[in-house]
Design a protein that fits this description.
Shape: globular
Largest sheet: 8 strands, mixed
Number of domains: 1
Bound molecules: zinc ion
Helix content: 25-40%
CATH superfamily: Zn peptidases
Structural class: alpha/beta
Order of helices and strands: HHHEEEHEHHEEHEHEH
Distance between the termini: 34 Å
CATH architecture: 3-Layer(aba) Sandwich
Length: 315
């Protein structure tokens, strides 16, 4: 296990040496890697890749015994991020606005914008392209209530608002999986039309970073991965951010559960198509639907806060 950790840390050091890393403290990772320089591993691809012993233990949990979506008894709409933990506690002056994708169409949806008076990076949050992944889009709705000290934040939540309001909730949009429909088609299925509008809005806004918030269920063919995880399609676009984040979760510094990481995103997904088509780092966040809603929302917020800090949008 120590060897595997050294391998990952060495990969992090290589990435840091190659440059292109976002702002953030890498000193801990680099000093840890310096003592294990015999490894010549390149950036990790394909997965699952377990980084530390704690995560290995976590994956041994019999997750299949946990029923998805345990009931909860609080009203997220009436809450703010600080109701879930130490999240986005500072207030900064911002202006807010919104605009519509596919305006006037049966499948229109709203993008919410939070803008600081100070220049800075742009981050675009796509929360819940799968409507039944509730903690993903509840976290997205909570993010509409935060403020940032610089830059711009775009939030669409629930991205699949039809699936989120269906009874029962569904990942599909008019019978198709919207997260296999990117980059979309303006004259295709409704899922493809919506994907086209969203993909081109991201292209137009040219953010520095894209979040794609999801939840995972028990492993099934063609479905999301198991457990709490980060998915990426090109590690080079992240510098050491993903490895730092995963290690922070596994060391208990952030999140209620240790995260693993996987690559690449599937064909037609937000993660894969925005990464490959626009060369923007896309971080897919998966929380596990067998866990309690409060923890799942908390973990989503924790991961987003970790990244926004690294980009300097919040303290
Ligand atoms: Zn999903």
């Amino acid at each position: 296990m120590k060897k595997k950790l050294a391998l990952i840390l060495a990969a992090a050091m290589l990435l840091a040496a190659c440059g292109g890393a976002p702002q953030g403290d890498t000193s801990q990772t680099e000093s840890a890697a310096a003592s294990d320089q015999e490894s010549t591993a390149s950036a990790p691809t394909f997965a699952p890749i377990t980084v530390t012993a704690s995560a290995t233990e976590a994956t041994k949990e019999d997750l299949a015994d946990l029923q998805p979506d345990p009931p909860y008894d609080f009203d997220v709409d009436a809450m703010v991020p600080t109701d879930f933990g130490d999240f986005f506690t500072d207030q900064y002056p911002v202006t807010t606005s919104s605009y519509k994708l596919l305006q006037g169409d049966e499948y229109e949806n709203e993008v919410f914008v939070i803008e600081s008076e100070n220049d800075g990076p742009t981050v675009y949050v796509i929360a819940g392209i799968h409507g039944d992944e509730e903690a993903a889009w509840q976290a997205g709705k909570l993010l509409k209530k935060i403020s940032i000290k610089c830059g711009k934040l775009y939030v669409i939540a629930p991205a699949n608002r039809w699936g989120a309001s269906a009874v029962p909730k569904t990942r599909y949009l008019d019978g198709k999986d919207p997260n296999r429909a990117f980059p979309g088609d303006p004259s295709g299925t409704n899922a493809q039309r919506f994907a086209y509008a969203l993909y081109n809005d991201v292209k137009d806004k040219a953010p520095d970073f894209v979040f794609d918030l999801h939840e995972a269920v028990i492993v099934k063919e063609g479905r999301d991965n198991l457990g709490s995880s980060i998915i990426y399609s090109d590690m080079d676009l992240f510098g050491d951010l993903i490895i730092d984040l995963v290690l922070a979760s596994q060391e208990g510094e952030i999140c209620t559960k240790p995260f693993n990481f996987y690559s690449p995103g599937p064909a037609g997904s937000i993660n894969r198509t925005i990464t490959e088509g626009l060369r923007i780092p896309v971080m897919t966040v998966e929380t596990f639907r067998g866990y309690q809603m409060r923890d799942r929302i908390s973990d989503q917020l924790d991961v987003v806060q970790y990244v926004l800090r690294s980009y300097g949008l919040v303290d």
